[in-house]
Amino acid sequence: MRPEIDIYGVFIPTFAVILLGCFLLFKVVHWLLSYAGFYQYVWHQALFNIALYFSLLGVSAFVLESFFR
Q: Which runs of consecutive H residues, i.e. helices, occur in the chain?
């Protein structure tokens, strides 16, 4: 994976782009789970949300790392 992305001379770390993409994906998944009523079965919603975000982040970083090798 490239260490940074060049956008018109501004270098942005690749991990920051992955963080932003996972946050947007998390918001979509969070909305879908809320709409489906899944959170009524979750004991601690904030703990579940942070675990879901970091799971999405880990999977996407792993997939992108293996894809760009």
A: 14-36, 45-67
CA-to-CA separations, 35 to 10, 11, 28, 38, in angstroms, rounded:
39, 38, 11, 8
pLDDT by residue for the chain (69 residues), tens only, comes to 567 877 888 888 888 889 999 999 999 999 999 999 999 999 999 999 999 999 999 999 899 888 777
Helix (H, G, I), strand (E, B) or coil at 9: coil
- Considering only CA atoms, which of 29, 30, 25, 27 is closest in space to residue 61? 25
Q: Is the dihedral of CA 33, 36, 38, 44 positive or negative?
A: positive
Q: Is the model's pTM score more than 0.85? A: no
C-alpha angle 68/2/51, rounded to 5°?
75
